[in-house]
Amino acid sequence: MSDRLAQGGGQTRGQTPGQTPQDQRLFIGGEWVEPDGGHYEVINPATEGVVGLAPEASREQVHAAAGAAREAFDSWSRTTPEERATVLDRAASIMQRDFAAYAELAQAESGATTGTARGMQVAVSVARFRRYAKGALEPVEAALPPQINEAGPMGKAGVVGALTVRQPVGVVTCITSYNNPWANPAGKVAPALAMGNTVVVKPAPQDPLSVYRMAAALEEAGAPPGVVNVVSGARPEVGEAAVDSRDVDMVSFTGSTSVGQRIAEVCGRDMKRQLMELGGKGAALVLDDADLDSAVAGIGTTYAFYSGQICTAPTRVIAHRAIYDELIEKLKGYIGFMKVGDPREKGTIVGPVISAAHRDRIESYVELGRKEGARVVAGGERPAGPGLDRGFYVAPTLLADCTNDMRVVREEIFGPVVVVVPFEDEEEGIALANDSDYGLLDYVWSGDVARAFRVARRLRAGGVGVNTIGRNMEAPFGGFKKSGVGRDVGSYALHAYSELQSIVWPG
């Protein structure tokens, strides 16, 4: 075991006192608890070594965590906004203090490149805790115009005042994604706590150790016992218990649409609130007057960013016939500059995907694309070279001459694979972009900004990037259709983790 741990690039920094990856415990009610189900191995996707051992909770322990959150809710929900802001801000400072160790752990667990682990995982987590420390201080009350009522069955004539108040939902189960073990849970936990909720966090089984470091930071920052609880497990029963517990009032989930549908069915039995960030198959609509270098730079991030394991990626390119061939050649050339390899090495752009099973799934889609008639322009083979004999690497792949009825076009692959579909005119391009079960983020590239905005308004997606893949982190984020339910980010996340109450009185 020690040899495999050494291969994994794991480390013991960032652990709670007296803990190592080998004896990681659950965090329930302010206590570090031995798991009923023992431990399972967390594998480094780049080396296939063992990063550490993660605890396997029992169903009873998950329900105990929800019970602890329920017990803590009354007092935490009645703390002042300033008290909650202080805890969140302190937690951010602790994460910043231990930044290097956290980034190293995140990289070992998720296979992210060094730049991604530092800049897009831990740094974003710190920023989100800072943002919602301020968010805790945002007003929760809003006055409504008074209403003048005439005398009638409801009472005497008079003026009735009204006020809306945002109240915490209660106990929130946060089920997080494997592609970002810091930013994703931070985007759930921080606004939920800022609003006065308590949380049970169920991290993705592939990389849960980072989430325990986040819990330790919150504990050190002064979060009272039971306000934050973390339970992990590789078995489906752990996530199921985190959803079906009667102590849970809301479920916030990031992951696949199929799992989100099952969660929604369970939540529906007790009318639990839901926030769902689900699958995506982002359309990149490249019009005939587009700046192709800009479009290629944006689309090319699909290959590099998280090795394509991100639901917001522009994976489905809808290209005008006038620029189709040139765009294909530029995308092919872009792949040629991408180094695939060890994410810890300088110059690596494309690291591994999360697991052998996921690598096999991506490769099966590429083979399916061949059978469906797509032309493999680049990639399509497992990458070879020094150091690539171990690890779950997938070559960036470009599939051209696709049609909208192909499964590689319609289904989320969640890997470094881009499919390209040609179109003849603007109306057809819009129709092709909208012909999808998904609607998370779409993109439009055009040299005519007015035209681009006009087209963007017609796309059935929760967000549209115009000549950019950039995000405004105060803009609401979420999907149309099967890409999700609800919106978060910025103040919209505070709204998502609250209930709206109205109070009226005689004027």
From TrEMBL:
Gene3D superfamilies: Aldehyde Dehydrogenase, Chain A, domain 1, Aldehyde Dehydrogenase, Chain A, domain 2. Residues 13-23 have a biased composition (Low complexity). It holds the Pfam family Aldedh. InterPro entries: Ald_DH/histidinol_DH, Ald_DH_C, Ald_DH_CS_CYS, Ald_DH_N, Aldehyde_DH_dom. This is Aldehyde dehydrogenase family protein. The lineage of its organism: Bacteria, Bacillati, Actinomycetota, Actinomycetes, Kitasatosporales. PANTHER family: ALDEHYDE DEHYDROGENASE-RELATED. Keywords: Oxidoreductase. It comes from the Bacteria. Residues 32-503 form the Aldehyde dehydrogenase domain. The keyword Oxidoreductase applies. SUPFAM superfamilies: ALDH-like. Residues 1-23 are annotated as: Disordered.
